[in-house]
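The authors assume throughout that readers already know how a fold can be written as discrete tokens. In essence, backbone conformation is discretised, so a fold becomes a row of integers matching the chain in length. A single example would do more here than another paragraph of explanation. For illustration, here is how one protein appears when written out as sequence plus structure tokens:

…
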Amino acid sequence: MINKAPIGVFDSGVGGLTVVKEIMNQIPGETIIYFGDTARLPYGSKSGKTVITYTRQIIRFLMSKGVKAIVIACNTASAFALETVKSEFDIPMIGVVTPGAKVAAKTTRNGRIGVIGTEGTIQSGIYNEYLSRTDSRLEVFGKACPLFVPLVEEGLMDDPVTLEMARRYISEILEHQIDTLVLGCTHYPLLRKTIRKVVGEDIVLVNPAYETAKSLVEVLTEKGIRNDSTPKLNHKFYVSDGAEKFKRFANTILPCEVMETKDINIEELG
């Protein structure tokens, strides 16, 4: 039955695990198949055309595994590819931009919202576009933070170098008196403590990973495909490179133990 089918989740690397963690916490009855495109990260510096190509390849792979819905757990892919692939594939599909933007719009008190993300996400202007449609009075200030993803991928979340880069990146946005900051890349919640040190306690940090899991619950319920039984979970994890490194990292983040991660050549499959 489709209700018992798994959910496909993908990202350019380990950042999407923040979304997986929230899904596991909010809908623990669902099985997840995850793909991290670790051989081709970061997506943030790639062209829109390339990101769409990668996204199509990964969706085909996940659909070959029988998933019932797909979460694009990557802000860059959500910005560049989501609308294109939604029209090409007959499967429920959500990204991470809209859920986070909705909460930012509801949360801000002074109408000044900061967004940090990859170069691709910031240059796409997708957060500005959505927030402007929501309320034309909102002011959005974006800042690309290109070194955050490789720092997270190398496990340097608490390193002094990461704190220094956070200060350099975010200080520019703070000059605009924002009261809300969107962590516009799924890697960035892993830097939450470091970012909090920079912005202080008064600024609300919006975690799109948490909000995306909430949106997924709504989609599954609306479509009538939520798994309300108590299945024997069999989560599976795939990457395009560095399976053992990924597995070690995943086991520091997720609420369950990742027993195995498989390397696959996504380009050969797609």
DSSP finds twelve helices and ten strands in the chain. Residues 15 and 144 are 16 Å apart (CA to CA). The first strand starts at residue 7 and ends at 11.
